[in-house]
Amino acid sequence: MRIVETARELSDLSHSKKQGGLKVALVPTMGALHEGHRSLIHVAQQHADFVIVSIFVNRLQFNNEEDFETYPVTLDDDIAICRSSGVSALYMPSSKSMYPDSFGTSVEVSGLTARFEGASRPGHFSGVTTVVTKLLTASAPDIAVFGQKDFQQFAVLRKLVDDLDIPVEMVMAPTIREEDGLALSSRNVRLNKDSRRRAVSISQGLFHSLTLFQSGVRDTQELNEAARKSCADEIAIDYVQIVDAQTLENVSEAHVGDVLLFAGTIDGIRLIDNIIFTA
Ligand code: AMP
């Protein structure tokens, strides 16, 4: 597995592989890799010959200094996971190489970023779209793989590559969960025992709403409320909302393919999750 640290090296490596006829995939991450990331790598390997994983804790997308400072960093484990998963190359740029002192560009997607995570975390999405633009430009992948776990992020990034004519196929990989249903997240390690036990009520609420949908309920207020009510009292809910998967606009009647988005905070730790309505 090649480890590269500059955009130039990454670009040279990717172009040489593409010239050699290989299909290149990029899996962007912030490290602290878990089974969710591993499954993204696996999906990338199904679509491409040469899989690049990037690990960069992107300060620009943290609207909260403490969240950035306490974000888990497990580089040695991450490298071992990438090696054992058959990753072809790992891109681990330093902060200085990603954002030198002279850096002064910001990439913004409007519309889709106005609500939900965009409203609750000012500046978050411009941090995401700026770094992902840099990663896509440097690695010029044929495909890029992201998790459904961050559903709004995927919708925003799909719009970004569409609007900027970035020639990459965007692939969304399913959310990987703990056995009890909690969506895997690098931030879960911060949950204490009690919070961890209560956090499971988030996915229980989402699945409860899905079951109601599958039994014929279409009224979104009722479906939103069902998910909200299942949530443990200790969870401060930010939003529980069924939206259209493309526009992220509210719908009054739920359809197959709509998404129930959730965000809430427990013990100061923000957790997000979502579920796509299926028949
Ligand atoms: P992160 O390192 O948390 O920024 O996430 C990097 C990528 O992994 C993003 O595309 C996330 O959506 C994805 N991801 C995070 N958690 C999960 C999960 N539980 N299942 C699937 N993908 C995930």
End-to-end C-alpha gap? 42 Å
Q: Bin the helical content.
A: 25-40%
List each distinct ligand once: adenosine monophosphate
Principal-axes shape call: globular
The CATH superfamily label of the largest domain reads: HUPs
Please state roughly what percent of the residues sit in beta strands, choosing from under 5%, 5-15%, 15-25%, 25-35%, 35-45% or over 45%: 15-25%
How many helices? The count is 10
Structure description:
It is an enzyme of class 6 (ligase). Pfam families: Pantoate_ligase. The chain has about 280 residues and is α/β, with parallel strands linked by helices. It has 2 domains: about 1-175, Rossmann fold (3-Layer(aba) Sandwich), CATH 3.40.50.620; about 185-270, Pantoate--beta-alanine Ligase, Chain: A,domain 2. It has 10 helices and 9 strands. It has helices at about 5-20, 35-45, 65-70, 75-85, 95-100, 115-120, 125-140, 150-165, 195-215, 220-230, and strands at about 1-5, 25-30, 50-55, 90, 145, 170-175, 235-245, 260-265, 270-275. Helix 1 packs across helix 7 (about 125-140), helix 7 crosses helix 8 and helix 9 (about 195-215) packs antiparallel against helix 10. The longest helix has 22 residues, at about 195-215. The chain is globular and about 55 Å long. The chain binds adenosine monophosphate (AMP). Adenosine monophosphate binds near residues 29 and 173.
